[in-house]
Amino acid sequence: MSALSAAPSATSFWPAPYAAGPVDATVEVPASKSLTNRYLILAALADGPSRLRAPLHSRDSLLMVEALRSLGATVEELDGDGTYGPDLLVTPIPPDASGDVSVDCGLAGTVMRFVPPLAALRAGRTSFDGDPHARKRPMGAVISALRELGVQLENDDGSLPFTVAGTGAVEGGTLVIDASASSQFVSALLLVGARFTEGLNLQHVGKPVPSLDHIAMTVAVLREAGVVVDDSIPNSWRVEPGTISAFDVRIEPDLSNAGPFLAAALATGGTVRVPHWPSDTTQVGAKWLTILPLLGAEVELTDDSTLVVRGTGTITGAELADTSELAPTVAALCSLARTPSALSGIGHLRGHETDRLAALVAEITRLGGDVEETVDGLVIRPAPLHGGPFHTYEDHRMATAGAILGLAVDGVEIENIATTGKTMPQFPELWKALAATAGPSGSR
Ligand SMILES: O=C(O)C1=C[C@@H](OP(=O)(O)O)[C@@H](O)[C@H](O)C1
Ligand SMILES: C=C(OP(=O)(O)O)C(=O)O
Question: Percent helix, strand and coil across the chain, each rounded to 5?
Answer without folding.
Answer: 35, 20, 45
